[in-house]
Design goal:
six-stranded mixed β-sheet
Length: 249
């Protein structure tokens, strides 16, 4: 792939490194050293009809080295620091995915971590001590236009009432709320009908992008998703809870 690469400035949460493939509408996401679950998931869901309505479109895997990646001055500090600390010269494989913010100027972006609980004992307290255990999700990062940014640590401290207040700030007009409700309902149906093989959606997030007129909402983060074992409906319960709160806005 002949292209220029730069650190993706619209990332608002997560541990993976995202690299923007310039002028392409694509991003490269670093793969996990611990497992290949996310790549396996994308290769699986890529065969499903209309999966791109609810998941980022997947284009395969490439290899990148740090020498060809530009770091723009506009990158916020936590992202720049993560890039410096987490870039692994010995693990250079990246998933090529649809860039969900590509067609937006100064978008508002919301990352919602789904699930009432987690199978990862190390992360249990993040769920117990946040709204995850109460309403099935927590805010994992929020960016309003290019002016205001809140990180995942802020989101973990919010109670239900504060989550609702901040969602009202994010979903700032009826058209955007209606679009989110419609997509949420269709996403629930799609998971029921096309994703029965997924037995665990642990740590999956819902990424929402809008410009006050148009909205995109897709599921992301599949490092802990599994396609075998006992079926778990936690994600459906979480999405239904999110949908009910949208009705309250």
């Amino acid at each position: 792939m002949n292209a220029q690469y730069e650190l993706y400035i619209n990332q608002i949460s997560g541990h993976s490194i995202f690299i923007r493939v310039m002028d392409s509408g694509l991003v490269a996401k670093s793969t996990s050293i611990k497992n290949s679950n996310e790549q396996k998931f994308y290769e699986w869901v890529n065969k499903k009809e209309n999966y791109g309505n609810f998941f980022p479109i997947y284009y395969g895997v490439i290899k990148l080295n740090k020498d060809i990646i530009h770091c723009p001055d506009s990158v916020i500090r936590w992202l720049r620091d993560m890039y410096q600390q987490r870039f692994n010269y010995h693990h250079d494989e990246y998933l090529i995915l649809e860039e969900l913010t590509h067609s937006f100027e100064s978008p508002s972006i919301l990352d919602i971590k789904l699930g009432f609980n987690t199978q990862n004992q190390k992360n249990q307290q993040k769920y117990v001590n946040s709204t995850s255990s109460k309403i099935g999700f927590r805010i994992n990062g929020m960016k309003l236009n290019d002016e205001i940014f809140y990180d995942k640590y802020w989101g973990r401290k919010l109670n239900k009432e504060e989550v609702v207040l901040n969602l009202r700030q994010f979903f700032d007009n009826k058209s955007i709320i209606d679009q989110a409700l419609q997509i949420a309902e269709s996403m629930i149906d799609y998971i029921k009908n096309y994703c029965q093989e997924v037995t665990c959606w642990d740590s999956t997030s819902l990424l929402i992008v809008h410009d006050h007129k148009r909205l995109i909402m897709k599921l992301i983060d599949f490092q802990n998703v599994t396609l075998e074992g006992t079926h778990n409906t936690d994600i459906l319960e979480s999405l239904n809870s999110f949908k009910q709160i949208l009705f309250m806005l």
